Amino acid sequence: MPADNSIYNDPAPGWWDENHFLNILKTGINPARFDFFKQVLERHQLDPNGLRLLDIGCGGGILSEEFARIGCITNGIDLSFSSCRSAQRHAIAGGLGVHYQAASAEALPYPTGFFDVVVCCDVLEHLPNPAAAIREAARVLKPGGFYFFDTINRSLRSYFENILVAQQLPLTRFFPADTHDWRQFITPTELAGWLTGQDLTPLAMSGLGPGVSLPVTAMQIVQLKMGRITPAEFGRRLHFRHGGSLASSYIGYAQRDY
Questions:
Q1: How far apart, in Å, do the first and last CA atoms of the chain sit?
Q2: How many beta carbons lie within 10 A of that of residue 6, not counting itself?
Q3: Per residue in 106-165, pLDDT tens?
């Protein structure tokens, strides 16, 4: 079965609820991915203040808000209207001027060459046509602009971690059963081919995963399943980091050709 993206509709406020499974993304993966992207901006000596940035598949705005806080002029789009509404309410409550709207990654409602940075995280593996989404992202990027991404490799390791453990096995699962479909995962080689086909030059790819050992991860899953820790605390205790193997989740960026 393809990934069931409806899970991002019904529990939209869960993005900011520490007791909801979606909050694992906020407290776990989000700090590591934002640190990676912030380092990219610093490496290329880009002042975030005033950078026009689009967050594709923004969900509840957990990554959009991080970029807004460092000065980026931030827009977010998502197919889920309820997620966009939740994101907009949270941004307003926090005094952040992020603009959200419901739209498709494959038909972006923006003019060509409008953004300095386009972000696409935890999205490509959910799409029926990820290559088309990359084409649209390249279209709205300025020449020399940056495309930030993360996704999941289609490997035996990713099947074990993201399908069996996280979704299927009753004793360990902490995401709904159809959150991901392993067949929709994307190898780094496939992604690099789609990027270069749209005049995007891949500049780096890096692993993205827990910074603790497998036994420690298993212990935290037990704590979560027993209700001793919240999903938010579970995410924090995994200490996600970037670096190392691309065998499971990975992160990277590319630059739009001049």
A1: 40
A2: 10
A3: 999 999 999 999 999 999 999 999 999 999 999 999 999 999 999 999 999 999 999 999
* Domain containing residue 119: CATH number: 3.40.50.150
> Which domain does 157 fall in, by range?
5-256
Q: Cα dist. 203→78, 97, 101, 139, 237 in Å? A: 26, 30, 30, 18, 30
Q: Do residues 231 and 28 make contact, with C-beta atoms less than 8 angstroms apart? A: no
Q: Which pair of tokens denotes residue 124?
A: 């490509």
Which residues, in sequence order, are CB contacts of 193 under 8 Å at separation 6+?
none
Q: Which two tokens stand for residue 239?
A: 């200490």
Residue by residue, DSSP assigns 74-121 as EEEEES-HHHHHHHHHHHHHTT---EEEE-BTTB-SS-TT-EEEEEEE
Residue 127: which of 176, 180, 174, 168 has the closest Cα?
180
| Number of domains, the chain | 1
pLDDT tens-place string over residues 158-198? 999 999 999 999 999 999 999 999 999 999 999 999 999 99
Contact present, 167 and 176 (Cβ < 8 Å): yes
* Confidence band of 72 (pLDDT split at 50, 70, 90): very high
Identify the CA nearest to 246 among candidates 154, 161, 181.
154
User: Phi and psi of 55, rounded to 5°?
Assistant: -105, 105
Q: Which residues pair with 75 in a beta bridge?
A: 54, 99
